Fold:
Amino acid sequence: MKKVVLKPVEWDQRLSFFDLLLLADESEEIVNKYILEGEMYSIKYEGATAGVMLFTFHPDHVVEIKNMAISEKYQGMGIGKMAIKKSFEVYRSRGFNKMIVGTANSSIANLAFYQKAGFRMSEIKKDFFKKYPDPIYENGIRALDMVLFEKNLP
Structure:
């Protein structure tokens, strides 16, 4: 089986991942607001950078996947699922007890992906994406609501 490695990204290297982050969050303005928060990891696959994950932290030992993007060249290969599993291990070992992630109501593939990765729907933030500067459409659906998922890290 091919190996996926999460490699910490140094602060001065974060902006080099900006275009990748935009694959998961189309608003440059919004990405700029959080790119320097939390912890960022590059997703390495066979030595190449296949994607990026950015995590932020909440009270009560909760970690959030703020942004996760797999380069189009590497999509559909199971790399995202392997990266999620690695992140479970990383944060469980550091004492976190829950991981959360949100995606748009219009992101049909993401809704399925996170459930297949073991997350459960926990909340809907109505009109979350209305604050974005430009409307986002996916699959012919306007992104309006944020669907939140959570996964306990026992």
In short: The domain at 4-152 is CATH 3.40.630.30 (Aminopeptidase). The mean pLDDT is 95.
